[in-house]
From TrEMBL:
InterPro entries: Inositol_monoP_metal-BS, Inositol_monophosphatase-like, Inositol_monophosphatase_CS
Gene3D superfamilies for this protein: 3.40.190.80, Fructose-1,6-Bisphosphatase, subunit A, domain 1
Keywords from the UniProt entry: Hydrolase, Magnesium, Metal-binding
Residue numbers binding Mg(2+) 2: 90, 93
Cofactor(s) required, per the database record: Mg(2+)
Enzyme Commission number(s) from the entry: 3.1.3.25
Single GO term (MF): inositol monophosphate 1-phosphatase activity
Enzyme class: hydrolase
Protein name as catalogued: inositol-phosphate phosphatase
Single GO BP term: phosphatidylinositol phosphate biosynthetic process
Entry binding sites for Mg(2+) 1: 72, 92, 217
Upper lineage: Bacteria, Bacillati, Bacillota, Bacilli, Bacillales
Reactions performed catalytically: a myo-inositol phosphate + H2O = myo-inositol + phosphate
Domain of life, source organism: Bacteria
Length: 280
């Protein structure tokens, strides 16, 4: 085994770097930082997103020069295939929360080898909650091992969803999910895909749907949820593509299968529009 694939060492390094980066982010609250916009006025990015991404890239490249990094802010590699070791990195997931609330944001890192998930970390910085797993060893919240997910009744379940799903949009017909919202116990919207996926893995939520997420948003959460016994697909029940943007539907196994059978499949049968993964 070379250093480049010493998974225990990679795991420990990633955990250490995440906590270090978290401290830097907290320290930034006392200074002022620049806020910019990207694709539209609500698509925010700050100096701290960029500095945090650079912090990880410097460390990864120094210790593991053969590993590639797909990071949201673009300082990593142009990743077009899944060969070798790839770190999917979202330095701050929930930037809008970071800017407006200084809470409810996370560092998200999923590490894959040849397309297979090896280790995942989602760190809710201000709550000091690090959700982590390496494949096959169970899911942890800080030092505590969490129980695998248990079956849940639809009528007693919580779904994370945001308002765009029930308003006009060009990806998912709103009629698909509105009947489900009447059936379940409640909905939540935290504004961080990583936190929402970590909560599904931990059983705090039973499901989460999103219109369009990028690999750095879901790579870590997918592995955490699968490790906990949950299921991750696109909304139209296809495998998630790690190299592209996807619609995302994740959940507890019973929740996922019931929603697929009773709400999504009937919507497909009625020809409601449900777009397949797309970069558009
Ligand atoms: C966003 C958050 C948000 C989700 C968006 C993502 P960012 O990530 O996860 O909850 O709805 O689709 O882009 O830009 O804050 O890293
Ligand atoms: Ca962003
Ligand atoms: Ca994100
Ligand atoms: Ca981000």
């Amino acid at each position: 085994m070379t250093l480049e694939t010493n998974w225990n060492q990679i795991y420990e390094d990633a955990k250490g770097w995440i906590r270090e980066a978290g401290e830097e982010i907290i320290a930034s609250f006392t200074t002022s930082f620049a806020i910019d916009t990207k694709s539209n006025p609500n698509d925010l990015v700050t100096d701290i997103d960029k500095e945090t991404e650079k912090f990880f890239i410097e460390r990864i490249k120094k210790i593991y020069p053969s590993h590639r990094i797909m990071g949201e802010e673009g300082f990593g590699d142009q990743v077009e295939d899944l060969s070798g070791v790839i770190w999917f990195l979202d330095p701050i997931d929930g930037t809008m929360n970071f800017v407006h609330q200084q809470t409810n944001f996370a560092i998200s890192i999923g590490i894959y080898e040849d397309g297979v998930g090896k280790a995942a970390f989602i760190y809710d910085v201000t709550k000091d909650e690090l959700y982590h797993c390496s494949k096959g060893t169970g899911l942890y919240l800080n030092n505590e091992k969490l129980k695998p997910l248990e079956p849940v009744k639809l009528s007693e379940s919580l779904l994370a969803i945001n308002a765009t799903w029930v308003t006009e949009n060009h990806r998912i017909d709103p009629r698909t999910f509105s009947p489900l919202l009447k059936k379940i116990r409640g909905t939540r919207s935290y504004g961080s895909a990583a936190i929402e996926m970590a909560y599904v893995a931990a059983g705090r939520l039973d499901g989460y749907v999103s219109l369009r997420l990028a690999p750095w948003d879901f790579a870590a959460g997918k592995l955490l949820i699968e490790e906990a016994g949950g299921v991750c697909t696109t909304v139209d029940n296809k495998p998630i593509n790690l190299l592209d943007k996807n619609t995302i539907f994740v959940g507890n196994e019973t929740f996922h299968s019931q929603v697929q059978k009773d709400y999504i499949q009937p919507a497909l049968d009625q020809n409601y529009y449900l777009k397949t993964p797309s970069t558009k």
